[in-house]
Write the structure tokens for this entry.
Amino acid sequence: MFIVRFQNVIPHNPIRYLKLIGIHTEALISFLTVVLPELIHLVSLSLMDATYYPYRCRSIKYVNDQLPSLTHISLSFRQQPSYISWVLTQLYSTFSTIQYLSLHDFSYAITRLPDLFQHLYKIEHLEIKLDIDDDIGCWDPWILDSELIRNGGQHLRSLVIQIESYLLFIEIASLLIHFPQLKSLSLVTHDITHDVEFYNGEKWEELIQTALPCLSSFRLYLKSEKISSEISSTFIVNRFRSPFWIKEKKWYVICDKFTNEFIQLYTIPCPKNVTITLNITSSNWDTTLPSFNSSTFDSVTRLIVNTTELQHNLTSLLYFNNVKSLRILSLPTKNYCLSQHINLLQVESAIDSRWISSS
């Protein structure tokens, strides 16, 4: 029925934009091998699989036909790595025209990037979550030096990276030096990063000045539990106070350090779709921002409130005007109102974990 429906539609209505959500594995196989090669007018393809489907490993014919108009592909799968690898393999022949590629909800091994880039010739924007195999990550850093990446990524202008826990700064740096033409970089930790070098503004400054001379947009979000209790948020922020950050680039950071040694560091504007935790207490908060206004935190759309103590001279300046998703872990118990710091009219989803914990 799936195949018949598409085959009846295609001759009468050339499809240019297509999004398939929650497609079953067997239907996906049919789509990739029978329907997709016929979509010669297709410009954008989005495959979103929100549900885990077991599948049978089997050999099938690959998509051998190029789609001359296809420039955008977005994939979002929560499946085992072998399934993801299989889907990508089916699509490799279409990658030669791709300018925009977004890979969500699954990790791609940094060691396999040469395999990906050898199929990319015109890529301008890439979104990807990177990981490293356990048997490799426990040894020396994996340093990339690949002509396949350099050639395939020569048109790359915008890069959005999520990194898994055990990737090192030196490994990400070895990837970035392949893209001297890069204009926009966003880097986010998927969970907790273990390498404190990501928090070193001097390291970032050196990398950007020497390897990324065209970079005009830099967004960063990091969180960690492994930073020494002797390292304060001010110590971290001070490494982002050089003239390069403040005067030349005007890239500003905020750093929060929590009582359990959890720490978050992010730029303003922050990367898209990250969750910021509001925790303004005593001296655990610092920033390079020279001033605040009502739109300073407009890039923050997801917020966790987890604070029992507010420092009034700081929090009176903070206002989140564009929060869509709100989660409350703890609040000051005396004379506190959320609307002091959050435009509640913009909130679309809210969870009060205090009530959930007590129920």
User: Anything to note?
Assistant: Residues 102 and 127 are 5 Å apart (CA to CA). The domain at 2-268 is CATH 3.80.10 (Leucine-rich repeat, LRR (right-handed beta-alpha superhelix)). The mean pLDDT is 84. The chain is about 25% helix and 25% strand.
